């Protein structure tokens, strides 16, 4: 399946009603087609079953700037062929929370550079770059089964540091990362709760929300 064929198919799937719905959820719809994720994933399977290079097509789809094409590119991209430069360049293009999260969950968390990018991106003052740091951390907590408890514990001070960022898309990602780490196992749950109570003491509306939301979800969490 060629780049031209994929773009043509995406355009035929355009749904004006869905675009309006996306906007209501705070998604940037400037270059959106209103295609739901199940349809994008079905298309991704078709592409993967063809003989094209997923990575080459992924790069080209990203360059189209079409919202759904960029999400699709994160699904078909090949993590072992993704460079640090590509990750840094794509992060600069993030302009919507859903694009940020999908790329981090579908592709970035599977790369060998994932853990190393978190602290770097968190330092950025750009909202979506900082969100990407914590979305990536959350994705790693969910999908990286080989990572050690020690690796995740090392990020608790970072979570605490940026818990006071009042920007909606940042504080929600910080909260997300804290909760997902805490849900990995009993040890990390106890550690996450410990830090959540520390975060709750910070004189910040977002920090208190992050802490209380995490405490509410993790305090009765049980592990088999």
What's a quick, concise take on this entry?
With 224 residues, the chain is mostly helical.
Give the key terms.
224 residues; mainly alpha; Serine Threonine Protein Phosphatase 5, Tetratricopeptide repeat; 2 domains
Give a written overview of the molecule.
The chain is mostly helical. The protein folds into 2 domains: 1-77, no CATH class; 96-224, Serine Threonine Protein Phosphatase 5, Tetratricopeptide repeat (Alpha Horseshoe). Helices cover 69% and strands 0% of the residues. The chain contains 14 helices and no strands. Helix 5 packs parallel to helix 7 (97-106). It is globular and about 55 Å long.
Q: Based on helices, strands and strand pairing, what is the structural class? A: mainly alpha
Principal-axis shape equals globular
Fraction in helix: 55-70%
Secondary-structure element series = HHHHHHHHHHHHHH
Strand content: under 5%
Question: For this structure, what is the CATH class of the largest domain?
Answer: Mainly Alpha
The description of the largest β-sheet is:
none
Number of strands: 0
Oligomer: single chain
Number of helices: 14
Topology of this structure?
Elements: H1 3-12, H2 16-24, H3 37-49, H4 54-63, H5 67-76, H6 84-93, H7 97-106, H8 114-122, H9 127-143, H10 149-153, H11 156-162, H12 168-182, H13 186-200, H14 205-218
Helix pairs in contact: 3-5, 4-5, 5-7, 7-9, 8-9, 9-12, 12-13, 12-14, 13-14
């Amino acid at each position: 399946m060629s780049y031209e064929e994929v773009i043509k198919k995406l355009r035929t799937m355009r749904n004006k009603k869905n675009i309006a719905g996306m906007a209501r959820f705070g998604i940037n719809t400037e270059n959106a087609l209103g295609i739901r994720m199940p349809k994008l994933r079905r298309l991704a399977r078709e592409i993967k079953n063809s003989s094209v290079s997923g990575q080459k097509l992924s790069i080209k789809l990203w360059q189209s700037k079409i919202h759904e094409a960029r999400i699709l590119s994160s699904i078909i991209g090949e993590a072992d062929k993704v460079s640090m430069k590509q990750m840094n360049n794509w992060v600069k293009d993030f302009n919507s929370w859903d694009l940020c999260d999908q790329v981090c969950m579908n592709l970035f968390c599977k790369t060998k550079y994932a853990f190393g990018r978190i602290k770097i991106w968190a330092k950025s003052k750009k909202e979506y770059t900082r969100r990407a740091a914590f979305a990536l951390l959350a994705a790693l907590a969910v999908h990286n089964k080989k990572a050690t408890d020690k690796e995740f514990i090392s990020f608790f001070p970072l979570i605490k540091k940026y818990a006071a960022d009042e920007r909606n898309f940042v504080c929600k990602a910080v909260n997300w990362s804290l909760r997902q780490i805490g849900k990995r196992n009993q040890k990390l749950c106890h550690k996450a709760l410990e830090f959540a109570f520390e975060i709750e003491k910070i004189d910040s509306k977002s920090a208190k929300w992050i802490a209380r939301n995490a405490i509410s979800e993790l305090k009765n969490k049980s592990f088999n």
